[in-house]
Amino acid sequence: MKEIYSFDAVKAENFTGTLLDTLNKMALAFMISIGHRSGLFDTMSHMDFATSLQIAGQANLNERYVREWLCALVTGAIVEYEAESKAYRLPAEHAAFLTRQAGADNIGVFMQYAAVMGEVEDEILKCFQEGGGVPYSKYHRFHEVMAEDSGQSVLSSLESHILPLVPGLTDKLNAGIKMLDVGCGSGRIINKLALLFPQSQFTGMDLSSEAIFNAKAETSQLGLQNVEFIIKDLSDFHDTAPVEQYDLITTFDAIHDQGKPLNVLKGIQRALKQDGIYLMQDISGTSNLEEDKNHPIGPFLYTVSSMHCMTVSLAQNGEGLGAMWGEAMTKEYLKRAGFSSIEKNKLTHDIQNNWYVVKK
User: Fold this and answer.
1) How far is residue 329 from each of residues 147, 309, 324, measured CA to CA in Å?
2) Is 108 among the domain residues?
3) What is the C-alpha separation between 55 and 17, in angstroms, rounded?
4) I need a surface site. Which of 11, 267, 291, 325 has the fewest CB within 10 A?
């Protein structure tokens, strides 16, 4: 006989608490994003207890909005409050994770994704009902936020942690090599490399005309002569990639977004010199949900996948691998693309990514 399910009142009550906590944290995500974008956290990090009028004055912002924002952060235990003087303070321990001075530790940058994803909710719901995907063009500020994200996760540790993953790579870049960044986005990474290594030649490719426009604008501003950017649909890269042209090819959190990821990887294998290196950053899923349940930012990564990574691939009639396709599937695709040597690395400060050093 089928066992009759017994309703657990304690479990239900606990879940109610979880939902209320989630509701509050959802709201705080928007307030933290506003605090980051407006510079309020940066302003308050240099102030002691101060009134909303003083804080707004220092930040050159409207006092009424600043006061309501402060109230949200006080009730969210992010900002401290003195009732008698009606003064507010951002504790140094909180500023360490909310200001631009915090560098790679600034979690405020990631809170911006809440608004970016929320803007396409209607389109995502339609995809739930009808299938298909949401193209890059629907995402307001995505490339701006992604550039700031990669500025923290990659640029901040490029010289200290990432380049040293490949022994001797810095020396080769100093001497002069040819590098290709596939899915380069706004190009901040290879613009930085082009600035650091003037003897090397750098090429960036991306589907987005908006991203390439931003990349070229920065190149011009920096006065770089050793970097070029190309708008390219990489779906047929396995056929169109130049043969053995590059000493170093990189992808930074880009392969799982592609419409035809295997074709892109085959193109990278084709374009790489025999003794070249493919350096691949991708999200640190495992390919197994039972293991990903323990990922410290698993809900965030699966949500970003649902509302961006997976759907932009499907919008290209692609596979829709999603951000959490994971290590096992990544290695499988690399082998199918023709690579024989795959070494996975983890950076101690980076809970989000795997770093693969790949050779033919």
Assistant:
1) 26, 16, 10
2) no
3) 34
4) 11
Domain that holds residue 257: 115-359
Flag whether 107 is in a domain: no
Contact residues for 305 (Cβ-Cβ < 8 A; gap 6+): 322, 323, 324
Residue 1: is its pLDDT beyond 80? no
Residue among 190, 182, 106, 120 at smallest CA distance from 148: 106
The tally of domains found in the chain comes to 2
Over the chain, what is the mean pLDDT?
95
Six token digits for residue 174: 């100093």
Question: In sequence order, what are the beta bridge partners of 245?
Answer: none
State the average pLDDT over residues 265-282: 98
d(CA 33, CA 123) in angstroms, rounded, equals 22
H-type alpha helices, the chain:
9-38, 40-44, 52-59, 63-75, 92-95, 108-111, 113-118, 121-130, 142-153, 169-175, 188-196, 209-222, 237-240, 261-271, 289-292, 298-304, 310-314, 326-336
Position 349 scores a pLDDT of 82
End position of a domain, from candidates 102, 127, 149: 102
Average pLDDT (304-332) is 95
Q: Quick one: pLDDT band at residue 156, thresholds 50, 70, 90?
A: confident
Q: Domain for residue 352, yes or no?
A: yes
The CATH code of the domain that includes 63 is: 1.10.10.10
Residue 251, SS3 per DSSP? strand
Asked, for residue 276, whether it belongs to a domain, the answer is yes
Q: What is the pTM of this model?
A: 0.89
